[in-house]
C-alpha cells in the first residue's frame, strides 16, 4: 500500500476541556467542523479557534492535517506510521478520528516542520 495523502485544513483550532456536567454549547453544534469526546469524568471539544467556549482549560493554535480517505476500518498502522514520523521530528500531536479518516492536530508553530517531515517520509501534502 502506498503512502497516504494529507491535506492541511485552513482554520486554526482549539482544544477545550470541560467538566463532565457541562453541556455542549450551541455554537459548537451549529459549527461546520467539531469533535466531541466524553468520558465518565471529562468532556473534550475540538473546535475552530474563533468559537468561544467557557472551559476548565483550553489550548489554542492547533492546525489540522486530514488524512484523505475514506480509509477502511480494517487498514492497519496508518495512524501509527504518521504518528511515528511526527514523533521522530519531535512534534506533539493530538489525534481524532471519524469512521472514514484520521485528523492529526499539530501546533501552528510546528506545522511547517510537520509538513517537511511527512514529505521526507514520502507522504503527499496538499496545502
Automatic annotation (TrEMBL):
Domain CASTOR ACT: residue ranges: 57-120
Entry-linked InterPro entries: ACT-like_dom_sf (IPR045865), CASTOR_ACT_dom (IPR027795), CASTOR_mTORC1 (IPR051719), UCP008459 (IPR016540)
Pfam families: ACT_7
Coiled coil: none
Protein name: CASTOR ACT domain-containing protein
Amino acid at each position: 500500500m502506498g503512502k497516504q495523502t494529507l491535506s492541511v485544513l485552513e482554520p486554526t483550532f482549539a482544544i477545550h476541556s470541560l467538566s463532565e456536567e457541562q453541556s455542549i454549547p450551541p455554537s459548537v453544534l451549529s459549527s461546520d467542523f467539531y469533535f466531541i469526546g466524553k468520558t465518565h469524568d471529562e468532556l473534550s471539544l475540538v473546535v475552530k479557534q474563533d468559537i468561544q467556549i467557557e472551559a476548565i482549560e483550553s489550548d489554542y493554535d492547533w492546525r489540522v492535517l486530514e488524512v484523505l480517505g475514506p480509509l477502511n476500518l480494517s487498514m492497519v498502522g496508518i495512524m501509527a506510521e504518521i504518528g511515528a514520523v511526527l514523533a521522530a521530528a519531535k512534534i506533539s500531536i493530538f489525534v481524532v478520528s471519524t469512521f472514514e479518516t484520521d485528523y492529526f492536530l499539530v501546533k501552528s508553530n510546528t506545522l511547517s516542520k510537520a509538513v517537511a517531515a511527512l514529505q521526507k517520509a514520502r507522504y503527499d501534502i496538499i496545502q
